[in-house]
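Re: [help] complex structure
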Amino acid sequence: MIELNSLTKKYSNGKGIFNVSFQVKNGEVFGFLGPNGAGKTTTIRHLMGFVNSTNGSASISGLDCWTDAAKIQRQLGYVPGEIAFFNHLTGMQFLKFISDMRGIDNKKLQDSLIERFELDSGRKIRKMSKGMKQKVGLIAAFMHDPAVIILDEPTSGLDPLMQRKFVELINEERNRGKTILMSSHLFGEVDQSCERVAIIREGKIVAVEDITTLKASLKKRFFITFEHKRDIEKVKMSGLDYTVSDVNKVEIVINGNYNEMLKALANCNVTSIDASTQTLEEIFMRYYGKEGN
Ligand SMILES: Nc1ncnc2c1ncn2[C@@H]1O[C@H](COP(=O)(O)OP(=O)(O)OP(=O)(O)O)[C@@H](O)[C@H]1O
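Output below.
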């Protein structure tokens, strides 16, 4: 549905995106994560046909993002990272302007989105906060019920309640078969809404991951205290992945093999066990850091 093949844009300062390739399948909600300046907006602007690539190509529903840009822009739902509006219009006037441009009567859906996001649509855009403008952008992107939606940092400026409403909307749209690509800094948002995620760093894709597979691979960490330090020796001989954190304390990392740990601990005198589960954020942070190389 959305396809990028070795998409490359090299700016004169050497920055940009390099050989970016991934596919978003029909009906998939796909996350696009990366630190500041990684290349998310540059990639998305290519998909919208605002800039031409130095190399490579991108297409949406078989249409080339550069040569068929006008057609793509008419059909798609799009929220830009920074929304530049017609400041003299009210929210409602702006939404009407966009509807007229698309030639679609979508008043019913528009009104339900205004209600959902509690937008004061009579207010002049120049008097709106960043979050309010973001709501106008979201309503404009969704109100013509597009099959493909591209969102660049859609929740920036939204308060936690509105962020939750946004996640609900995405999940409803997914159930209705929509194809959605959204860039984000927020791991929680990606975790709650996306099936797969691509991670970009310094202009290059460093990973494309399946969220369900990632969740299944999350490790559990057990913090165990023994009454006697000699019990540490039993853990050492068990073959478990362990770290000794004090004379009578160990940390054991497990991915599913609980029985091995229980067997090893059965002959020990355990005085306390605490556990924590690795988070998706910890996994993503690895890609953000130096190890992303
Ligand atoms: N027109 C331009 N000319 C030169 N360099 C540019 C231009 N536009 C973007 N860049 C550079 O390209 C890199 C990618 O920028 P981009 O805006 O795509 O990142 P981003 O991942 O969207 O970041 P953020 O999360 O901060 O919005 C950055 O180093 C940026 O400074």
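The chain has a mean pLDDT of 91.
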